[in-house]
Write a structure and sequence with these properties.
Elements: E1 3-7, E2 12-17, E3 22-26, H1 40-62, E4 69-78, E5 86-96, H2 101-115, H3 117-122, E6 127-134
Parallel strand pairs: 5-6
Antiparallel strand pairs: 1-2, 2-3, 4-5
Length: about 140
């Protein structure tokens, strides 16, 4: 797996993989960022959500559970000092569809506790929590 990051005008950078897919990132306004692309640590949060979303979809498909929609909100709290690494991350899952609530909740737990590669890397230094909403309602004892 390889990614090449190249500078574009200003403080914008483009990451491109071997297949040609790309992601734009930029620095803060004080060095020329315009607020038009993800900041690098926002990309980390997006990677966590994307990786977990794929796990949840695969698990539910395997169980033949009809997932109609999945939205993941990720909030990261950074340290006050430099380096301003993440100290806490909370992941909020919203699933919709005629799903068995316990299976949906279990799919999220399996991703967050066992399968998600990004979570596994980050949890070595970051406290990560999550909760789940299925069809607008929180399942009992959501973690």
């Amino acid at each position: 797996m390889k990614v090449v990051v190249s500078r574009l005008p200003g403080a914008t950078f483009e990451a491109r993989n071997e297949r040609g897919a790309s992601l734009r990132m930029e620095g803060p306004a004080e060095i020329g960022g315009k607020g038009e692309a993800l900041r690098p640590l926002e990309a980390v949060l997006a990677a966590l959500a994307g990786s977990s979303a794929i796990d949840v979809m695969k698990i539910l498909q395997h169980q033949k559970e009809p997932l109609e929609d999945l939205v993941i909100h990720v909030d990261g709290k950074r340290a006050e000092s430099v380096p301003a690494v993440f100290e806490e991350i909370h992941v909020h899952f919203e699933l919709r569809g005629p799903l068995a609530v316990e299976k949906a909740k279990k799919a999220v737990s399996l991703s967050m506790e066992k399968y998600c590669s990004v979570v596994k890397m980050l949890e070595l230094s970051v406290h990560i929590t999550h909760d789940v909403i299925v069809n607008g309602e929180a399942p009992p004892s959501s973690t």
